[in-house]
Amino acid sequence: MEKVIEIKNLIKQYKELKAIDDLSFDVYKGEILGLLGPNGSGKSTTINCILSLLKYNKGSIKIFGKEMKPNSYDIKSKIGVVFQDVSVFDELTVYENIDYFCGLYIKDKNTRKKYVEDAIDLVGLADFKKFYPKKLSGGLLRRLNIACGIVHKPTLIFLDEPTVAVDPQSRNNILDGIKKLRDDGATIVYTTHYMEEVEILCDRVIILDKGTVLASGTTDELKDLARIEEKVTVEVNNLDEKYINDIKSRDNIDEVSYNGNILLVTYIEGKNNLVNMMEYLKRENIKYNKIYSERPSLNDVFLELTGKELRD
User: Fold this and answer.
1) What is the distance between the alpha carbons of residues 32 and 189, in angstroms, rounded to a whole number?
2) What's the pLDDT score for residue 312?
3) Residue 227 forms beta bridges with which residues?
4) Alpha-carbon gap, residue 108 to 106, rounded angstroms
5) Which pairs count as long-range contacts for 302-306, CB under 8 Å and 24+ apart, including other chains?
6) Residue of 58, 148, 151, 253 with fewest CB within 10 Å of its CB?
7) Sheet harboring 3-14: ordered strands across?
8) What is the pLDDT of residues 211-236, one digit of tens each?
9) Coil, helix or strand at residue 289
10) CA–CA distances in Å: residue 147 to residues 79, 140, 194
11) Which residues neighbour 280 within 8 Å (Cβ) at sequence distance 6 or greater?
12) How far apart are CA 278 and CA 66, in angstroms?
């Protein structure tokens, strides 16, 4: 597969802190790569180094087969960036904002007009062209922010948590738009803390922490890394502690929790855990409302690899 981004042995150090520690990975043409990590893991530093917004100490970065430098304007013209913080002009309308950002790259008026209309259609802002940003909801503002970043039809796009703090309808619209960008040939680097979005969108995932790659692969490949085999959830009222301790004592149990009326049992191994749990509840005459089983999620793997402690 053709490499769009090549990062080799990248190091970025702030005095005693290594924000990026010998980092190497590739991004391939036409894929959506999920770049995940807890706060302080090095995601933003990595992206800023890739975009040549930040100097790094050692290593190399190539984009489209060329070394990326601060004055690589031929490369930068093919890149679109949508940062988490909304960056639009309050004094310009929706249409004027998108047209302005398009004009930074596209000089031909007819081409620019078409590109602006395409971006407006992509993010669903056709009914809001004459609105000013202060009149837009949070979801519409996010969609405007995306339109401004991708209006010049870049072939490489960086999306930094584009759906943060938006309603489900706007989120679905944004995710559909991102899929369309990929289907139209764009390569996308996507950062988010919403693991369900990663499973919906991303062809491949890289999990970073402390500036290095902890794991990479498809979501299914990453799930196979999970230490646990299965999770069984039981909705049961007033469960006596002796039953909880009894379940905990079994050899194939990783963890048991009981909060409110939800019993969650995680298994290290076993093929018939759900059936065995149902038989146990029946044998002990424990009545339950609901019971179901699921495989480890991407969120489980993420927490296993990066830890469960709070980050700044």
Assistant:
1) 6
2) 65
3) none
4) 6
5) 302/36, 302/195, 302/207, 304/225, 304/226, 304/227, 305/207, 305/209, 305/214, 305/215, 305/225, 306/37, 306/38, 306/41, 306/207, 306/209, 306/214
6) 58
7) 17-28, 3-14, 58-63, 66-67
8) 999 999 999 999 999 888 899 999 99
9) coil
10) 13, 10, 21
11) 247
12) 59
Residue pair 156/186 in contact by the 8 Å Cβ criterion: yes
Identical fold for domains 3-223 and 230-295, yes or no, is no
What are the distances in angstroms from CA 96 to CA 93, 116, 124, 155?
Answer: 5, 9, 16, 23
pTM above 0.85, yes or no: yes
Question: Selecting from 3.30.420.10, 3.40.50.300, 3.30.70.360, 3.30.300.20, what CATH number does the domain 3-223 have?
Answer: 3.40.50.300
Structure-token pair, residue 118: 């395409």
Rounded to 10°, the helix 109-123/138-150 angle is 140
Mean residue pLDDT of the chain comes to 95
- Residue 138 one-letter amino acid: G
A 10 A CB-CB count for 189 gives 24
For residues 73 and 105, is the Cβ–Cβ distance under 8 A? no
Q: Which fold has domain 230-295?
A: Alpha-Beta Plaits (3.30.70)
Give the phi and the psi of residue 76 in degrees, each rounded to 5.
-65, -30
